[in-house]
Amino acid sequence: MENSTQESHHLRSENSVTHESPYPLYAMAVSSSPSRHHNHRIALGSFLEEYTNRVDVVSFDPDSLSIKTHPGLSFDHPYPPTKLMFHPPSSNPSKSDLLASSGDYLRLWEVRENSIESVAVLNNSKTSEFCAPLTSFDWNEIEPKRIGTCSIDTTCTIWDIEKNAVETQLIAHDKEVYDIAWGEARVFASVSADGSVRIFDLRDKEHSTIIYESPQPDTPLLRLAWNKQDLRYMATILMDSNKVVILDIRSPALPVAELERHRASVNAIAWAPHTCRHICSAGDDSQALIWELPTVAGPNGIDPMSMYSAGSEINQLQWCAAQPDWIAISFSNKMQLLKV
Amino acid sequence: MATGEEGNEGVPANLRKQLAVAVRSIQWSYAIFWSLSATKQGVLRWGDGYYNGDIKTRKTVQAVELKPDKIGLQRSEQLRDLYESLLEGETDAQNKRPSAALSPEDLTDEEWYYLVCMSFVFNPGEGLPGRALADGETIWLCNAQYADSKVFSRSLLAKSASIQTVVCFPYLGGVIELGVTELVPEDPSLLQHIKVSLLDFSKPICSEKSASIQRNGEADEEPMCAKVDCDIVDELVLENLYSPAQEIKFDPENIRELRESIPKELDMDSLDECSNGCEHNYQTEDSFMVDGMNGGASQVQSWHFVDDDFSYGVQGSINSSDCISEAIVNQDKHKSSPERENAKKAHLEELQECNHSKLSSLDLGADDITNYRRTISAVLRNSDQLPETRCICSCGCKSSFVRWRMVEAHKPRAHQETLKKILFKVPLMHRGQALKSEQENGAKSLLGDVDFCAGHILSTKKKEHEKFLVLRSMIPSIEEIDKASILDDTILYLRELEARVEELESGMDSTDFEGKVTRKKLPDMIEQTSDNCKKRWINKRKASDIDETDAELDRNAQGDGLQSDVKVNVKEQEVLIEMKCPYREYLLLDILEAVNNLHLDTHSIQSSTLDGVLTLTLKSKFRGAALSPAGMIRQVLRKITWKY
Questions:
Q1: Which residue windows are coiled coil (chain A) (predicted)?
Q2: Predicted local distance difference test score (pLDDT) of residue A150
Q3: B236 inside 8 A of chain A by CB
Q4: Closest Cα in chain B, distance from residue A130 (Å)
Q5: A294–B324: do the CB atoms touch at under 8 Å?
Q6: Is B322 in the A-facing interface, judged by CB distances under 8 Å?
Q7: With an 8 Å Cβ cutoff, are B410 and A339 in contact?
C-alpha cells in the first residue's frame, strides 16, 4: 500500500500463501465466519471440461500462514460449478457451515468437521427435461434464507432455502443472465448478455430499472458487484474489455467511472468489505489491481493504488468480509491468498 | 453582512450571524427573524434570515476562498438578492431580471420555501409568528406540513419543502422562527440552547472561528473545522445544553489522520445523530472531500442530477450530489469517444436546466421513476450511515501488493477464456447431459464427454443419404441427385403445397379468419416473452380468448386418435418445424414457449386448424451460438403435443 514499496518477490512467504491444486480452479468461496473448531475455510471448485468435477474445502490459518487440505471435505460436482458461496455471517455462530454451489441446479451442502453432506438440490423446472443451468447466484446477507439465482434462460429465480421452495421467478432480461447481486433484503441487480444492468425490487415485480447499458449494443456484461459498504455504487465488467465500470444507482445511464488500467480483459471484481471506496479487479494480464475511488478524478482517469502480478491469468477474485486483510485469487491450478 | 436592507431598522446588528450560529449548532434548516414593521403598527415582516438547509447549486461568483460558515452566509445573502431581483422583475416587467448570483432553477424546495417566506407579512396575531408575538410565548409546531392554514399559513409550502417542525418565539421585539425538515418533538432544552447562543454572542463569530482555525495551522482543514468549530464554540459557551455537540471531541490528531487517509471519516455519525442524519453527513463529507482535493476553494460545480422531487423522496440522503459523479464526468469527458461525449455533454446540459429528471435516455416514464425512487430509498435508507471506515493500511505485516505503476504486462492470446467458458459453454454441457440421459433410458454412456451433437450426426450420417433418396422420390419435380438441389426443390414444392392449402382454407371463411388472427397474434407474443411475468400472463389470457373462439367455431371432433406428426429440419442456423397434431387449448402457446426456450427466434409461422387438427409450419433461427440438435427439438415438440 502506501507504506510498502518493496518488491513482492522476496517477501512472498510473509505476505502470501499459495495452495496448489491438482486441477485448474475457477469457483472459489471464503467462509464468512470461523468457528472455534476450525480456521477460515475456503471452498475451491475445479474447472475441468468434463462431467466429473470436484469441490474441495481447505482451511487457512492466518497465524501460521498455512493452508491445510482435508481429504474428507470434498465432493463431486457435475461439470464445473459456476459459483460457490458460503452462508453469510449469521447471528447464530453455532449453526453449521452451509455452502451453496450452482451448476445445473442450486445445491446446498453442509460442511461438517470431516465430511460434507448434501442438504438440498433445488430444481425449479416443472418437467425434468430442460432445467435451465445457472450461471451465478447470490446469497442475501440481510435475509439469509433468500438466494437469488440467474440462468441462461433469461430468468432470475429467488429461492427460500428454509422451505426449499421458489419464492418467485422473474424474466429478467432479453438474453442470458450472467450475474446477480443483492443490494437489500428485497432489491437485487442483474447483468446479462443483452448488455444491461437492471435493478429489481421484489415488492414491485412488474418494474425493473435499467441503470446501465453497454455502449456497444449487445455487448454482454459478464460480472456484477454491489458495494456492500456503500450501496450507491456497483461495478460491472464487459466482455472482452479491460474496463471496470463503476455505476451509481442514483444516476442511471451514466457510469461514475471507468477504470481502465488493465492491459487485458478483466475477469473478476470485488469490492473491499471493510471500506467503502476500494475495489479490486483481476484480469488476463495476470494482474490484480486495487483501486481507490476518489471523489474527484484526475484528467487522465483513475490510477490504481496498488498492484500484484501473478504467474498467469487470474480467473477469480474473492475479498471476504471475515478476512478483510486477505484477498484470495486463483489462476491456473493455484489459489493464492494475498495480504492487502 | 448586508447593510443595505430596507425597512429593517428593527434588526439588531450581526443578527444574521447569530442566527447562523444558532441554527447551525442544532443543525436545523433555517432561521428567520421577523421584525416589526416601522410603517405599520404591529405587523411582522421579514427581518433577516439564515439558510442552513440543502443547497442544489453552488456557484462561486468570486474566486475568493470561502469558509463554509461564510458560504452559508453568502448563500443566505444570495437568496435575499434573488428575492429582491424577482420582486423588481415583477414590478417592472420591462427590465430584464438583474443578474443575481442565483436563478430560480438552482434552488431546492427548501430554498424556495425560504425565499417565499421573505414575501410574507403577518398582521398582529396572524400566523405563527403573529401569534407568538401576541402571546409572548414560544410556539412549537410539529408536523407543520399538515397544519391548518389558519394556524400556520405556510403549511402547503412547508409540505413541498418537507419542513416538518417550526418553532417561533418572541425575541427582541420581533419573532425568531426556526424550521427543520425533520420531525423534532418539543424540547425545552433546545430552546434554551438557542436563546443562550443568541444572547451570548455580541462579537462577530467569524473571528472566533478563524482564530480556532489558525490554531490548527492547516488552511485546508477549514471546511472540516468549520463543522467541528460549531462544536468548539458550543462547547466553550454552552455546556450541557444539547446533545449532538457533546459527542465531538475535537481532536487535532483526527484531522491530521484524515489528511492522510481521505476515505476515513470522523465521527460524523455521532454528530448527525439527530436532525438531518445522513443529509448533513454527506453534505459535509462532500464539501470536505472536494475542498480537500482542490485546495480549499469550493470551485467545483456540483449540481443535482435529478430534480428536486428526487431529493424530496429520499429525505435528502441523496443530497450529496457527489462530486464523484459530476466532477469525474467532467474530467472524463475528453476520454470518451466523440459521440458518447456529445451525448454526455448534451445530457449534462439538460441536467443543468434542472427541469426534469432526465432519465429520458432510458425512456423512463414518470411511473417508473417513482417506483425506482422508492426502490433506491429502500436500499439507501436501510444502509447504515457511512461507517467509520478503516484505512487499507496494513499494520505490521508487509503487503503482497506494491504501489502501482504502469508496466508492460503479459498479454494473453485468448480473452477471458475461463470466464467465457464458465458462462457460455458450461451451462450447455448440462443441457446436453440432460438430454442424453433421457435418450439412453438407463444405458450408461461410456464416454464422459458431452458432445451430443457430434454423436447424433455420426449415427445418422448413414441414414441421411437414404433419406434424401426417399425425399427425391416423393417430390415430382426433382431431377438432380445432389443434396443441395434436392432440398431446394423440396422447399419449392412445399411452398406450392402451402399456397394451395391456403387457397383451400380461404374458401372456408370462419376458419380462415381465426387462422389469420392467430397468426397475427403470435409475433406479439413472441416479442413479449422477454418482458416480465405479468405482461406475459396478460398475453396468455388474450391468446386464450382467441383459442376459445377458435374451438367454438370448429366444433368438429377433436381428433383424439390422430397421430401427431413433428418434422424438424435443421440447416445451419435455420430451423424449419412442421407439425400436425390434434388441437387443444394453449397448444400454440406451449409450442412457441418451447421454441423460445430452445433459443430459437421464430420469424415466420403459418398455422391452420382444420377438423380439430392443427397444422403448423414454423421457420426460425438459432439465437446465439447454442445449437440444439434436431432430435432434441423434435422431442420437445412431441411431448407438448401429447400433453392434455
A1: none
A2: 93
A3: no
A4: 7
A5: yes
A6: yes
A7: no
Q: Does B636 contact A129 at a Cβ distance shorter than 8 Å? A: yes
Question: Which of B392, B435, B529, B635 to mutate to probe the A interface, most A CBs <10 Å?
Answer: B392
Burial class of B286 by CB neighbour count within 10 A (0 to 12, 13 to 18, 19+): buried
Q: Write out the three cell numbers for B612.
A: 380439430
Nearest to B411 among A78, A184, A263 (CB): A263
Choose among A135, A267, A296: nearest Cβ to B323.
Answer: A296
**pLDDT tens sequence across A239-275:** 999 999 999 998 888 888 999 999 999 999 999 998 8
Q: Answer whether A184 sits within 8 Å of B383, measured CB to CB.
A: yes
Q: Nearest by CB to B416, from A231, A240, A306: name it.
A: A240
Residue with cell 448527525: B272
Q: So what's the pLDDT on residue B412?
A: 66
Taking a C-beta distance cutoff of 8 angstroms, is the pair A231, A184 a contact? yes
C-alpha cell belonging to residue B535: 405482461
Q: Do A339 and B397 touch, CB atoms closer than 8 A?
A: yes
- Chain B residues within an 8 Å CB radius of A172: 532
* B345 near A CB under 8 A: no
pLDDT value for B644? 55
Are the C-beta atoms of B288 and B223 separated by less than 8 Å?
yes
For B259, the enclosing helix (H) or strand (E) is helix B252-260
CA separation for the pair A68, A60 (Å, rounded): 6
- The residue among A108, A95, A103 whose CA lies nearest residue A159 is A108
**Which among A6, A26, A51 has the least Cβ separation from residue B433?**
A51
Residue B435: per-residue pLDDT: 61
Identify which of B361, B393, B417 has the shortest CB distance to residue A253.
B361
C-alpha cell at position A80: 464445473
**pLDDT number for residue A180:** 95
- List domains and CATH numbers for chain A: 22-271 (2.130.10.10)
Please report residues of A whose CB lies closer than 8 A to that of B438. Answer: 129
Instruction: Please give the pLDDT value at position A318.
Output: 94
Q: Which residue has the cell 484470495?
A: A328
Report the predicted TM-score, pTM, of the whole model to 2 decimal places. Answer: 0.48
Contacts 24+ apart (CB under 8 A), A123-131: A124/A157, A124/A159, A124/A166, A124/A169, A127/B639, A129/B434, A129/B435, A129/B438, A129/B636, A129/B639, A130/B431, A130/B434, A130/B597, A130/B636, A131/A104, A131/A105, A131/B430, A131/B434
The chain-wide mean pLDDT, for chain A, equals: 87
Task: Tell me the β-bridge partners of B31.
Answer: B50, B178
- Cell 398582521 found at: B123
Over residues A150-203, the pLDDT tens digits come to: 999 899 999 999 998 889 999 999 999 999 999 999 999 999 999 999 999 998
Residues of A in contact with B399 (CB under 8 A): 1, 3-4, 15, 306, 338-340
Query: How far apart (Å, rounded) are the C-alpha atoms in residues B132 and B173?
Result: 11
Of B398, B423, B430, nearest to A6 by CB-CB distance is: B398
Interface contact B448, partner A, CB < 8 A: yes
CA-nearest residue to A204 within chain B is: B371
Residue numbers of chain B with a pLDDT score lower than 50: 1-10, 61-63, 93-98, 202-364, 388, 394-396, 441-459, 510-562
Answer yes or no: do B419 and A171 touch at CB < 8 A.
no
